[in-house]
Design brief:
Helix content is 39%, strand content 12%. By secondary structure, the chain is an alpha+beta fold. The chain folds into 2 domains: 52 residues; 77 residues, 3-Layer(aba) Sandwich (Glutaredoxin), CATH 3.40.30. Bound molecules: FE2/S2 (inorganic) cluster (FES).
């Protein structure tokens, strides 16, 4: 991944507090996440504290602060999925991946996210890996599913 060109991103903005969200969106579009370095650079540019940036950005679920893995595993914890064993899937996925929700494996193969609904509640509980959706997912089949992804 190329280094973020902050000069090019910042040149489109006046450097006022209201620029925060659009700047973060551009950085995330380019890098796939908001790194600590990015927060530091934005903090200097907008003259607001890093804590303020984390506070605002973490309010929006679309911002992520960890580098994405090659494959993204999403476990649904919406009502239907929760009722049908979403927590068991979450625990088992975490155990198999060796990470918690919100983290990326050390080898960069997977990142692990929890979402509130994947829009296919009739298939609960649902796990999604990249663009592939696995409905009525059973804990016992998770390892085989994960093994499909390099
Ligand atoms: S609640 Fe899981 S897909 Fe809707």
């Amino acid at each position: 991944m190329k280094d973020t060109d902050y000069t090019s991103i910042f040149s489109r903005f006046r450097g006022v507090e209201g620029d925060l969200l659009p700047i973060l969106l551009r950085i995330q579009e380019k890098d796939g996440y908001i790194s600590e370095t990015s927060v530091e650079r934005v903090s200097r540019f907008l003259k607001i504290s890093e804590n303020q940036i984390y506070g605002v950005a973490s309010f929006y679920s679309r911002f992520r602060f960890t580098k994405p893995g090659k494959n993204t595993v999403k476990v649904c914890m919406g009502t239907a999925c929760h009722v049908h064993g979403g927590q068991f899937l979450t625990d088992e996925l975490g155990w198999n991946l060796g990470i918690s929700v919100g983290q990326t494996t050390d080898d960069g193969r997977f990142d692990f996210q929890r979402v509130t609904c994947l829009g296919c509640c009739a298939l609960a509980p649902v796990v999604q890996i990249n663009d592939e959706t696995y409905g009525r997912t059973m804990v016992v089949g998770l390892k085989e599913i994960l093994n499909k992804y390099e």
